[in-house]
Write a structure and sequence with these properties.
The protein has helices at residues 3-8, 31-43, 62-69, 84-89, 123-144, and strands spanning 20-25, 48-53, 92-96, 109-112. It is α/β, with parallel strands linked by helices and 145 residues long. It has a single domain (15-144), classed as 3-Layer(aba) Sandwich (Rossmann fold), CATH 3.40.50.2300. α3 (62-69) crosses α5 (123-144).
């Protein structure tokens, strides 16, 4: 609640003005999940975060889960299917290798992060991917908040 709102006794939903970021990859099982979890950590509620996949997997990549656990981030949940409404609701859409499977709507900010897919890679490689995502997410937070 802002100081002015507190003085007036009004509740203010700070998140209502928060930008929404949607991370999209093919399976929503690695890159987009890691990016979303890191953005939630660094933005501290100042950004709404979603992730989805054009062809979601059944589960999150266990090596990605382990790599994130190493930095204190718990990747729980299930991959989600990319829906046009999620893209419409987003202010920023970050794609990671989904190519033409990602819908494009005019007026949205799009970024395409070229990142290796962690699927089938050993933990050492997934750590490198995680660290690259981490650096990009930190830069995005600095722009948005």
């Amino acid at each position: 609640m802002s100081g002015a709102a507190a003085n007036l006794g009004q509740d203010v939903d700070v998140r209502s003005e928060a930008p929404t970021v949607l991370f999209v990859c093919v399976h929503n099982a690695g890159r987009s999940q890691m990016a979303a979890a890191l953005l939630e950590r660094y933005a501290g509620g100042r950004v709404r975060v979603r992730s989805a996949g054009s062809e979601p997997a059944e589960t999150i990549n266990p090596v990605a889960v382990e790599a994130m656990r190493e930095v204190g981030v718990d990747l729980r949940g299930q991959p989600a299917r990319l829906e046009a409404d999620a893209v419409r609701a987003a202010d920023v859409v970050v794609t990671m290798g989904c190519g033409d499977a990602c819908p494009v709507f005019p007026g949205k900010r799009y970024e395409d992060w070229e990142l290796d897919d962690p699927a089938g890679k050993p933990l050492a490689d997934v750590r490198r991917i995680r660290d690259e995502i981490d650096a990009r997410v930190r830069a995005l937070v600095a722009e948005l908040v």
